[in-house]
């Protein structure tokens, strides 16, 4: 993953989901070498000051992607 992809995920996620406690997880889908991946950035803080705790790429999109509730 590139630094640019991390910034893009944090600033404009495809999805923002609840993490543990007050943490949020910014998620964005990417395609690499013909395969789909999910970049997940675990965030702490408020809108004005956000801290990235960790970032990782996973192929287990269905495990983390939250379906829209009807």
Mean pLDDT: 92
Structural class: alpha+beta
* Strand percentage: over 45%
Termini separation (Å)?
33 Å
Described by strand count, sense and barrel closure, the largest sheet is: 4 strands, antiparallel
The percentage helix is 10-25%
Shape: globular
Gyration radius, rounded: 12 Å
The low-confidence parts are none
Number of helical elements: 2
Numbering strands along the chain, what is their spatial order in the largest sheet? 1-2-3-4
The count of strands amounts to 4
Number of domains: 1
Strand-and-helix sequence, N→C?
HEEEEH
Q: How would you describe what is shown here?
A:
The protein is α+β, with helices and mostly antiparallel strands and 70 residues long. It has one domain. The termini are far apart.
Quick summary:
The protein is of the alpha+beta class and 70 residues long. The chain has two helices and four strands; from the N terminus they run αββββα. The protein has one domain (3-61).
Key terms for this structure?
4-stranded antiparallel sheet, 70 residues, alpha+beta, 2 helices, 19% helix
Topology:
Elements: H1 3-11, E1 15-18, E2 24-32, E3 35-46, E4 49-58, H2 61-64
Antiparallel strand pairs: 1-2, 2-3, 3-4
């Amino acid at each position: 993953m590139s630094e640019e992809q991390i910034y893009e995920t944090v600033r404009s996620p495809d999805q923002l989901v609840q993490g543990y406690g007050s943490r949020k997880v910014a998620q964005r889908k990417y395609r690499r070498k013909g395969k789909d991946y999910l970049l997940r950035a675990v965030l702490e803080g408020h809108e004005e000051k956000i801290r990235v705790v960790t970032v990782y790429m996973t192929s287990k999109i269905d495990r983390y992607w939250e379906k829209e509730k009807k």
